[in-house]
Amino acid sequence: MGIEMPTPTEAGGIEKDSRKKFEQETQERLIKGGVLKEEMSQKYKEWLTRQVIERFAWAENSARDQFKENEAVLASYKEGSDMRKVHDFQISQTAIEEIKGLIDTLTGLPNRRWLNAEFETFDNKKVDETGEEKEDESMTEIIIDRRNKTKEQDNEQKPEEKGRGKYVMIIDIDHFKEVNDKNGHTAGDNVLEELGRLLRENIREDDFVARYGGEEFCVIAGGDEKEVADFAERIRKVVEKSEFNVKGNNGETTLKLTISIGFSRHEEGDSPEKTKRNADAALYVAKKAGGRNNATLMEKKESKSRRLVIQQQEAA
């Protein structure tokens, strides 16, 4: 079982300054190791650093003398330090190389491999690289440990917090094939890079965003239906108002693009794959029935599918 980052109680009290120093040191190692780029915003650097700290187990074994021997170690123990204190660990160089394999090189976002590891935390379901469920070993040799705190916290929600949940959001660039056909694949890559940047700049602190594959991106978002719908609409508007400067076949040009978004709430007992299928179905509605440039929610309620199309003119 992996070593979890101790809570303030377990560690005898972790001062904010110590925690901040630990995060800064981790961020510097991620930059030095090429996981984070200097040109990325500080907001995103801090976000990804937190993802690394909160989502990766420290080691397979907790015994002090096994740290240096265990190849699965993602954070090394500082010699002579207090093992109980979170800031006495540092991300190892081995971990840096492993984490780089979980980052999409074009957009700088987590890639599908990391995304699938996030899906494994949905009711302890395991998924392979295609997103399908599997029952054998973890889909990656990297030790991913969300510690399933989310489900525990959901069970402890206050009455006024009931109704909140976890949503899977699929984002697709409208008419992306035309971008490639008319302007070339370099222009297409430029569009993906810029959309990745926009998502990096607008992701909420507790959400998870990744490149899903091709021109699709995925967000795992928390909140109630209205909060997530408002967030989806905000992302849609940000993209709609943006200009995409690309290097096309005939030189530099500026494109105006839109996205369609489908999202679905993860229901207890459902597999991650089912939730993703529902989000994909909602995306289909947004692109076909909704005429694109829409955000569509598909929610399971009383064993019936209900589609709620959020038209752009209805947004606040």
Account of the protein in words:
The protein has 316 residues and is of the alpha+beta class. It folds into 2 domains: 16-100, no CATH class; 154-314, Reverse transcriptase/Diguanylate cyclase domain (Alpha-Beta Plaits, 2-Layer Sandwich), CATH 3.30.70.270. The chain has helices at 16-32, 42-55, 93-100, 112-119, 149-155, 176-183, 185-202, 225-241, 272-289, and strands spanning 75-77, 89-91, 126-127, 133-134, 165-173, 208-213, 216-223, 244-248, 251-255, 259-265, 295-301, 304-310. The protein has a 6-stranded mixed sheet with strand order 6-7-5-10-11-12, sandwiched between helices. The chain has a two-stranded antiparallel ribbon with strand order 1-2. Strands 3-4 form a two-stranded antiparallel ribbon. Strand 3 and strand 4 (133-134) form a beta hairpin. Helix 6 packs across helix 7. The longest helix has 18 residues, at 185-202. The radius of gyration is 21 Å and the shape is globular. The termini are far apart. Mean pLDDT is 75; it is low at 1-14, 57-73, 133-151 and 302-316.
Order of helices and strands: HHEEHHEEHEHHEEHEEEHEE
**Domains (count):** 2
Q: What is the alpha-carbon Rg in Å?
A: 21 Å
> Which secondary-structure class do the elements indicate?
alpha+beta
CATH class of the largest domain: Alpha Beta
Shape: globular
Name the descriptors.
316 residues, alpha+beta, Alpha-Beta Plaits, six-stranded mixed beta sheet, two-stranded antiparallel sheet, disordered C terminus
